[in-house]
């Protein structure tokens, strides 16, 4: 391994990233991806370099790209790739004349830009999961979005990174603020988990009865956005407003002056505020606020997600999967969760309480 990459395994120790260290040790011996050309299209930040290093150790010929639709590649990570002589491409259109065996995709952007891969695609996100499921596919896809492992990032990771990013940008103690969350899917739950853990005032807004019911079961006040009077009052009472619905321009539905003087935050991949709001009105120019951090998700929460996103490639290689979207096996998912709890001395009961059960209105 090039020293530039190896240094990141010192920065992110085995205690911080046990899954990545394990995968590196195993794959540098077994080399299960030997001879495969792959594109890695995952937010390129310093901790992503461990994931890329594992693919290279596994024998893959890796081309790295970045989902620039919602974030800018971290200069430090780009510099490391260049030092290590790993191919990095800014513009996906430059790859249109090439063919690849596997996509490690985000938002289904590789599929939309480059067409089908030879063997299959592994999707990282809920938005990409929806795009792939809406297509008539002629290749298999494994989406890790509907997994418990993914929720270590979207629930617990977001609980940490959302408030950290706001604090970094504004220099405030977010625990002392009142919060309003639009959307009570996986990311909305994460923001609510932070508030509940810190006994911070929070209200959730969701159009889905099941999601509102779920919020109330967790002790979170929840309102229907169609109840305009109650919603208006909740907005007036809030100091921090976070969007996490997974829908574009959802805030255009409400009068702009309702939000005057509020701290406005987006945690979704899309611009959930829309044209009614200027970039200067929303933290991080309406892009996901956690991407102002060097590590948008703390390593302890993204480590198992990197692992499952990589290892799903072995399922594509070894199983004769049908040409549709699949999830990771429950056995693999449960094993990762159990191991993660052991590594970090975390109570499984908290996971059982806060994670989405994927029945109705899931985002």
Automatic annotation (TrEMBL):
Keywords: Hydrolase, NAD, One-carbon metabolism. SUPFAM superfamilies: Formate/glycerate dehydrogenase catalytic domain-like, NAD(P)-binding Rossmann-fold domains. One of its GO terms (cellular component) is cytosol. Residues 154-316 form the S-adenosyl-L-homocysteine hydrolase NAD binding domain. One of its GO terms (molecular function) is adenosylhomocysteinase activity. The keyword Cytoplasm does not apply. It is an enzyme of class 3 (hydrolase). GO terms for biological process: one-carbon metabolic process; S-adenosylmethionine cycle. Belongs to the adenosylhomocysteinase family. PANTHER family: ADENOSYLHOMOCYSTEINASE. This is Adenosylhomocysteinase.
């Amino acid at each position: 391994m090039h020293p530039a990459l190896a240094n990141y395994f010192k920065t992110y120790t085995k205690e911080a990233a046990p899954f990545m260290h394990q995968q590196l040790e195993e794959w540098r011996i077994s080399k299960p991806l030997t001879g495969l050309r792959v594109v890695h299209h995952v937010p390129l930040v310093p901790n992503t370099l461990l994931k890329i290093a594992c693919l290279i150790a596994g024998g893959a010929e890796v081309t790295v790209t970045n989902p620039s639709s919602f974030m800018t590649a971290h200069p430090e990570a780009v510099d490391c790739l260049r030092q290590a002589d790993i191919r990095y491409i800014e513009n996906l259109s430059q790859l249109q004349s090439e063919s690849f065996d596997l996509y490690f995709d985000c938002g289904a952007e590789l599929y939309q830009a480059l067409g089908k891969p030879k063997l299959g695609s592994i999707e990282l996100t809920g938005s990409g999961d929806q795009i792939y499921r809406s297509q008539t596919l002629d290749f298999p896809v494994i989406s890790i979005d509907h997994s418990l492992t993914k929720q270590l990032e979207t629930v617990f990771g977001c609980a940490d990174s959302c408030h950290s990013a706001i604090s970094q940008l504004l220099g405030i103690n977010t625990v002392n603020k009142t919060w309003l969350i639009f959307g009570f899917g996986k990311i909305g739950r994460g923001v609510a988990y932070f508030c509940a853990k810190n006994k911070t005032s929070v209200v959730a807004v969701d159009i889905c009865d099941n999601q509102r019911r779920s919020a109330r079961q967790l002790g979170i006040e929840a309102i229907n956005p169609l109840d305009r009077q109650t919603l208006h009052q909740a907005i007036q009472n809030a100091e921090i407003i976070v969007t996490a619905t997974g829908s574009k321009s959802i805030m255009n539905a409400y009068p702009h002056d309702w939000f005057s003087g509020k701290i406005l935050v987006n945690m979704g991949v899309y611009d959930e505020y829309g044209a009614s709001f200027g970039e200067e009105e929303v933290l991080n120019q309406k892009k996901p606020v956690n991407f102002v951090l060097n590590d948008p998700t703390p390593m302890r929460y993204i480590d198992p997600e990197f692992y499952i996103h990589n290892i799903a490639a072995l399922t594509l290689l070894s199983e004769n999967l049908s040409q549709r979207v699949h999830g990771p096996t429950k056995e693999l998912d449960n094993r990762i969760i159990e191991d993660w709890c052991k590594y970090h001395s975390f109570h499984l009961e908290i996971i059982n309480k806060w994670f989405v059960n994927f029945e109705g209105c899931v985002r």
